[in-house]
Specification:
- This protein is of the alpha+beta class.
- It has three helices and 15 strands.
- Strands 1, 3, 4, 6, 11, 12, 13 and 15 form an eight-stranded antiparallel sheet that branches. A seven-stranded antiparallel sheet has the order 2-5-14-7-8-9-10, with no helix packed on it.
- The two termini are 15 Å apart.
Protein backbone atom coordinates (compact mmCIF):
# COMPACT_ATOMS: atom_id res chain seq x y z
CA UNK A 1 0.00 0.00 0.00
CA UNK A 2 1.30 3.45 -0.91
CA UNK A 3 2.09 5.61 2.08
CA UNK A 4 2.94 9.30 1.61
CA UNK A 5 6.22 10.28 3.13
CA UNK A 6 6.24 13.16 5.61
CA UNK A 7 8.89 14.92 3.49
CA UNK A 8 6.57 14.84 0.48
CA UNK A 9 3.72 16.33 2.47
CA UNK A 10 5.95 19.06 3.83
CA UNK A 11 7.25 19.84 0.34
CA UNK A 12 3.68 20.13 -0.95
CA UNK A 13 2.71 22.37 1.94
CA UNK A 14 5.74 24.59 1.41
CA UNK A 15 4.91 24.91 -2.28
CA UNK A 16 1.30 25.88 -1.54
CA UNK A 17 2.45 28.37 1.07
CA UNK A 18 4.87 29.98 -1.41
CA UNK A 19 2.07 30.32 -3.96
CA UNK A 20 -0.11 31.99 -1.31
CA UNK A 21 2.68 34.42 -0.41
CA UNK A 22 3.27 35.29 -4.06
CA UNK A 23 -0.44 35.90 -4.58
CA UNK A 24 -0.61 38.12 -1.49
CA UNK A 25 2.48 40.20 -2.21
CA UNK A 26 2.08 40.35 -5.99
CA UNK A 27 5.74 39.32 -6.27
CA UNK A 28 7.05 37.67 -9.41
CA UNK A 29 10.78 37.10 -9.61
CA UNK A 30 13.26 35.41 -11.85
CA UNK A 31 16.95 35.48 -11.02
CA UNK A 32 19.66 32.93 -11.76
CA UNK A 33 19.26 30.00 -11.91
CA UNK A 34 16.21 30.44 -14.11
CA UNK A 35 15.21 26.75 -14.15
CA UNK A 36 14.66 24.32 -11.31
CA UNK A 37 15.86 20.73 -11.13
CA UNK A 38 13.08 19.61 -13.48
CA UNK A 39 14.21 22.12 -16.12
CA UNK A 40 11.07 24.17 -15.59
CA UNK A 41 10.52 27.78 -14.55
CA UNK A 42 8.51 28.27 -11.38
CA UNK A 43 6.98 31.59 -12.37
CA UNK A 44 7.22 31.83 -16.17
CA UNK A 45 6.33 30.05 -19.39
CA UNK A 46 8.44 30.63 -22.47
CA UNK A 47 8.12 29.89 -26.16
CA UNK A 48 8.97 30.81 -29.72
CA UNK A 49 12.72 31.07 -30.22
CA UNK A 50 13.42 31.72 -26.53
CA UNK A 51 16.33 29.76 -25.09
CA UNK A 52 17.50 29.63 -21.48
CA UNK A 53 21.05 29.44 -20.23
CA UNK A 54 20.18 28.44 -16.70
CA UNK A 55 22.96 30.36 -14.95
CA UNK A 56 23.34 33.38 -17.25
CA UNK A 57 20.29 34.65 -19.13
CA UNK A 58 16.93 34.10 -20.77
CA UNK A 59 17.48 34.86 -24.46
CA UNK A 60 14.29 35.92 -26.20
CA UNK A 61 15.99 36.06 -29.59
CA UNK A 62 19.47 35.18 -30.72
CA UNK A 63 21.52 37.29 -33.12
CA UNK A 64 19.85 35.64 -36.10
CA UNK A 65 17.32 36.80 -38.65
CA UNK A 66 13.55 36.27 -38.37
CA UNK A 67 13.27 35.19 -34.75
CA UNK A 68 10.46 35.75 -32.23
CA UNK A 69 10.49 34.76 -28.59
CA UNK A 70 8.44 35.41 -25.48
CA UNK A 71 8.41 34.91 -21.71
CA UNK A 72 5.17 35.32 -19.70
CA UNK A 73 4.30 34.93 -16.05
CA UNK A 74 2.13 32.01 -15.04
CA UNK A 75 0.47 34.02 -12.29
CA UNK A 76 -1.22 37.39 -12.84
CA UNK A 77 0.21 40.48 -11.23
CA UNK A 78 -2.21 40.96 -8.33
CA UNK A 79 -0.86 44.22 -6.93
CA UNK A 80 -2.83 47.39 -7.63
CA UNK A 81 0.21 49.64 -7.28
CA UNK A 82 3.54 48.13 -8.20
CA UNK A 83 7.13 48.56 -9.26
CA UNK A 84 8.86 46.31 -11.77
CA UNK A 85 12.60 46.36 -12.26
CA UNK A 86 14.13 44.44 -15.15
CA UNK A 87 17.77 43.92 -15.99
CA UNK A 88 18.23 43.17 -19.67
CA UNK A 89 20.88 43.23 -22.35
CA UNK A 90 20.60 44.00 -26.06
CA UNK A 91 23.75 43.22 -28.01
CA UNK A 92 25.07 41.63 -31.18
CA UNK A 93 27.55 41.85 -33.99
CA UNK A 94 27.66 44.35 -36.81
CA UNK A 95 26.68 47.99 -37.16
CA UNK A 96 23.04 47.40 -38.13
CA UNK A 97 20.68 45.74 -35.68
CA UNK A 98 17.04 45.27 -34.79
CA UNK A 99 14.27 45.09 -34.09
CA UNK A 100 13.78 45.42 -30.34
CA UNK A 101 11.94 44.04 -27.33
CA UNK A 102 8.83 44.69 -25.25
CA UNK A 103 7.59 44.48 -21.69
CA UNK A 104 3.90 43.62 -21.32
CA UNK A 105 1.19 43.98 -18.68
CA UNK A 106 -1.69 42.49 -20.63
CA UNK A 107 -4.72 40.24 -20.47
CA UNK A 108 -3.24 38.12 -23.25
CA UNK A 109 -0.26 35.92 -22.54
CA UNK A 110 2.10 33.44 -24.15
CA UNK A 111 1.33 34.17 -27.80
CA UNK A 112 3.62 34.95 -30.71
CA UNK A 113 2.75 37.95 -32.87
CA UNK A 114 3.93 40.88 -34.99
CA UNK A 115 4.54 43.45 -32.23
CA UNK A 116 8.07 42.80 -30.99
CA UNK A 117 7.30 39.10 -30.96
CA UNK A 118 3.89 39.27 -29.27
CA UNK A 119 0.28 39.88 -30.32
CA UNK A 120 -1.23 43.04 -31.77
CA UNK A 121 -4.55 44.47 -30.57
CA UNK A 122 -3.54 43.68 -27.02
CA UNK A 123 -5.44 44.75 -23.93
CA UNK A 124 -3.24 46.42 -21.34
CA UNK A 125 0.15 48.13 -21.39
CA UNK A 126 3.14 47.65 -23.65
CA UNK A 127 6.59 49.18 -23.09
CA UNK A 128 8.72 48.98 -26.23
CA UNK A 129 12.50 49.25 -26.50
CA UNK A 130 12.77 49.88 -30.21
CA UNK A 131 16.27 49.60 -31.69
CA UNK A 132 15.43 50.02 -35.38
CA UNK A 133 14.09 53.23 -36.90
CA UNK A 134 11.45 52.94 -39.62
CA UNK A 135 9.74 56.24 -40.44
CA UNK A 136 10.01 58.62 -37.53
CA UNK A 137 12.05 61.69 -38.46
CA UNK A 138 13.59 63.80 -35.74
CA UNK A 139 13.75 60.96 -33.20
CA UNK A 140 17.00 59.36 -32.06
CA UNK A 141 16.99 55.57 -31.72
CA UNK A 142 17.01 53.34 -29.71
CA UNK A 143 13.70 54.68 -28.48
CA UNK A 144 11.69 53.63 -25.41
CA UNK A 145 7.94 54.22 -25.46
CA UNK A 146 4.67 53.11 -23.89
CA UNK A 147 1.35 52.27 -25.50
CA UNK A 148 -2.01 51.48 -23.89
CA UNK A 149 -4.11 48.94 -25.76
CA UNK A 150 -7.85 48.30 -25.55
CA UNK A 151 -8.02 45.09 -27.66
CA UNK A 152 -8.91 47.04 -30.82
CA UNK A 153 -6.10 49.60 -31.35
CA UNK A 154 -3.25 48.38 -33.55
CA UNK A 155 0.44 49.18 -33.22
CA UNK A 156 1.62 51.38 -36.11
CA UNK A 157 4.82 49.56 -36.95
CA UNK A 158 5.60 51.65 -40.04
CA UNK A 159 5.86 54.79 -37.89
CA UNK A 160 7.30 53.14 -34.78
CA UNK A 161 4.11 53.47 -32.75
CA UNK A 162 3.98 57.27 -32.87
CA UNK A 163 0.19 57.55 -33.20
CA UNK A 164 -0.63 55.74 -29.95
CA UNK A 165 2.37 56.69 -27.82
CA UNK A 166 1.55 57.83 -24.28
CA UNK A 167 5.16 58.63 -23.38
CA UNK A 168 8.68 57.94 -24.54
CA UNK A 169 12.32 58.97 -24.75
CA UNK A 170 15.46 58.41 -26.78
CA UNK A 171 18.00 56.11 -25.15
CA UNK A 172 21.15 56.24 -27.25
CA UNK A 173 23.71 53.95 -25.66
CA UNK A 174 21.27 51.49 -24.12
CA UNK A 175 22.33 48.83 -26.62
CA UNK A 176 25.68 47.17 -25.76
CA UNK A 177 26.10 49.45 -22.75
CA UNK A 178 29.19 49.07 -20.59
CA UNK A 179 27.10 48.85 -17.41
CA UNK A 180 24.11 46.64 -16.55
CA UNK A 181 21.07 48.03 -18.38
CA UNK A 182 17.85 48.21 -16.41
CA UNK A 183 14.35 49.57 -16.75
CA UNK A 184 12.08 50.41 -13.83
CA UNK A 185 8.31 50.83 -14.14
CA UNK A 186 6.40 52.43 -11.26
CA UNK A 187 2.62 52.33 -11.47
CA UNK A 188 -0.13 53.70 -9.26
CA UNK A 189 -3.55 52.55 -10.43
CA UNK A 190 -5.22 55.14 -12.66
CA UNK A 191 -2.89 57.82 -11.25
CA UNK A 192 0.58 57.65 -12.78
CA UNK A 193 3.11 55.62 -14.68
CA UNK A 194 6.83 56.40 -14.45
CA UNK A 195 9.54 54.77 -16.54
CA UNK A 196 13.22 55.16 -15.62
CA UNK A 197 16.36 53.71 -17.21
CA UNK A 198 19.83 52.75 -16.06
CA UNK A 199 22.38 52.56 -18.86
CA UNK A 200 24.82 55.44 -18.41
CA UNK A 201 26.33 54.41 -15.08
CA UNK A 202 25.47 51.95 -12.32
CA UNK A 203 22.90 53.27 -9.84
CA UNK A 204 22.32 56.31 -12.05
CA UNK A 205 18.68 56.35 -13.10
CA UNK A 206 17.43 58.58 -15.90
CA UNK A 207 13.72 59.31 -15.98
CA UNK A 208 12.36 58.48 -19.40
CA UNK A 209 8.85 59.80 -18.88
CA UNK A 210 6.05 60.15 -16.36
CA UNK A 211 2.38 60.37 -17.20
CA UNK A 212 -0.32 61.39 -14.74
CA UNK A 213 -3.17 60.58 -17.10
CA UNK A 214 -4.98 57.33 -16.23
CA UNK A 215 -3.45 54.16 -17.68
CA UNK A 216 -6.09 51.51 -16.88
CA UNK A 217 -5.02 47.88 -16.81
CA UNK A 218 -7.18 44.76 -17.06
CA UNK A 219 -8.27 43.27 -13.75
CA UNK A 220 -6.15 40.24 -14.64
CA UNK A 221 -2.79 41.28 -16.09
CA UNK A 222 0.17 39.04 -16.87
CA UNK A 223 3.74 40.27 -16.92
CA UNK A 224 5.54 39.32 -20.10
CA UNK A 225 8.55 39.97 -22.29
CA UNK A 226 9.05 39.46 -26.00
CA UNK A 227 11.46 40.33 -28.77
CA UNK A 228 11.81 39.96 -32.52
CA UNK A 229 14.38 40.19 -35.28
CA UNK A 230 13.81 40.64 -39.01
CA UNK A 231 16.40 41.15 -41.71
CA UNK A 232 18.50 42.70 -38.94
CA UNK A 233 19.12 40.93 -35.67
CA UNK A 234 20.33 41.17 -32.07
CA UNK A 235 20.52 39.14 -28.89
CA UNK A 236 17.72 40.21 -26.54
CA UNK A 237 18.44 38.88 -23.05
CA UNK A 238 16.53 39.03 -19.77
CA UNK A 239 18.94 38.89 -16.83
CA UNK A 240 16.71 39.53 -13.80
CA UNK A 241 13.13 40.50 -13.01
CA UNK A 242 11.66 41.67 -9.72
CA UNK A 243 8.24 43.04 -8.87
CA UNK A 244 7.13 44.69 -5.65
CA UNK A 245 4.02 46.26 -4.17
CA UNK A 246 3.89 50.01 -3.76
CA UNK A 247 1.83 51.49 -0.96
CA UNK A 248 -0.27 54.64 -1.07
CA UNK A 249 -0.47 56.57 2.17
CA UNK A 250 -3.98 55.79 3.40
CA UNK A 251 -3.48 57.21 6.89
CA UNK A 252 -2.66 60.82 6.08
CA UNK A 253 -4.95 63.62 7.19
CA UNK A 254 -4.78 67.33 6.48
CA UNK A 255 -2.58 67.84 9.55
CA UNK A 256 -0.28 65.02 8.40
CA UNK A 257 0.04 66.62 5.00
CA UNK A 258 0.87 69.97 6.52
CA UNK A 259 3.49 68.31 8.68
CA UNK A 260 4.88 66.61 5.60
CA UNK A 261 5.00 69.94 3.82
CA UNK A 262 3.00 69.35 0.68
CA UNK A 263 0.19 66.86 0.92
CA UNK A 264 1.42 64.22 -1.52
CA UNK A 265 -0.26 60.84 -1.57
CA UNK A 266 3.00 58.94 -1.26
CA UNK A 267 6.18 59.23 0.76
CA UNK A 268 9.57 60.45 -0.39
CA UNK A 269 9.96 57.71 -2.98
CA UNK A 270 6.40 56.44 -3.07
CA UNK A 271 7.32 53.24 -1.24
CA UNK A 272 5.52 51.88 1.79
CA UNK A 273 3.77 55.20 2.42
CA UNK A 274 6.83 56.55 4.22
CA UNK A 275 7.30 60.26 4.95
CA UNK A 276 10.31 62.37 5.81
CA UNK A 277 12.49 61.73 8.83
CA UNK A 278 11.26 62.98 12.16
CA UNK A 279 7.55 62.84 11.33
CA UNK A 280 5.69 61.16 14.19
CA UNK A 281 2.70 60.38 12.01
CA UNK A 282 4.97 58.64 9.53
CA UNK A 283 6.22 56.43 12.34
CA UNK A 284 2.63 55.47 13.14
CA UNK A 285 1.99 54.48 9.53
CA UNK A 286 5.16 52.44 9.45
CA UNK A 287 4.09 50.67 12.64
CA UNK A 288 0.70 49.80 11.11
CA UNK A 289 2.32 48.42 7.97
CA UNK A 290 4.86 46.42 9.96
CA UNK A 291 2.02 45.09 12.12
CA UNK A 292 0.09 44.08 9.00
CA UNK A 293 3.13 42.31 7.57
CA UNK A 294 3.71 40.64 10.92
CA UNK A 295 0.13 39.38 11.02
CA UNK A 296 0.62 37.70 7.66
CA UNK A 297 3.83 36.05 8.86
CA UNK A 298 2.02 34.77 11.96
CA UNK A 299 -0.81 33.46 9.81
CA UNK A 300 1.54 31.50 7.57
CA UNK A 301 3.45 30.20 10.59
CA UNK A 302 0.21 28.81 12.01
CA UNK A 303 -0.61 27.40 8.59
CA UNK A 304 2.72 25.53 8.53
CA UNK A 305 2.21 24.16 12.03
CA UNK A 306 -1.32 23.08 11.23
CA UNK A 307 -0.15 21.39 8.03
CA UNK A 308 2.58 19.52 9.91
CA UNK A 309 0.09 18.30 12.51
CA UNK A 310 -2.43 17.18 9.89
CA UNK A 311 0.28 15.55 7.80
CA UNK A 312 1.73 13.70 10.78
CA UNK A 313 -1.70 12.52 11.88
CA UNK A 314 -2.51 11.28 8.40
CA UNK A 315 0.76 9.37 8.09
CA UNK A 316 0.25 7.81 11.53
CA UNK A 317 -3.31 6.80 10.74
CA UNK A 318 -2.25 5.28 7.39
CA UNK A 319 0.52 3.25 9.02
CA UNK A 320 -1.85 2.06 11.77
CA UNK A 321 -4.45 0.97 9.23
CA UNK A 322 -1.80 -0.90 7.25
CA UNK A 323 -0.62 -2.73 10.38
CA UNK A 324 -4.21 -3.67 11.30
CA UNK A 325 -4.77 -5.18 7.87
CA UNK A 326 -1.51 -7.12 8.17
CA UNK A 327 -2.85 -9.04 11.18
CA UNK A 328 -5.59 -10.75 9.16
Amino acid sequence: MWCPRPASLLWLLATLMEICIVAQQGAIRTIPPYLDSDMQSRFFDFGGDTIIRADQYIRLTSDRQSQEGWLFSRLPLTATNWEIEVEFKIHGQGNLHGDGMAIWLTKQRAQTGPVFGSVDRFEGLGIFIDTYKNQRPGVVFPYVMAMAGNASVTYDKDHDGKENEIGGCSARGIRSASVPTKIRLTYFAEKSLTVALQYKAENEWTECFETTSPVPLPSVSYLGFSAETGELSDNHDIIAVETNNKYINKYSSSSDQQAGGGGGTTGNDGDDGAVGKGKKKGGGRQFRQEKEKGSWKWFFFKLVVFGMVVGGAYVGWTMWRASQRGRF
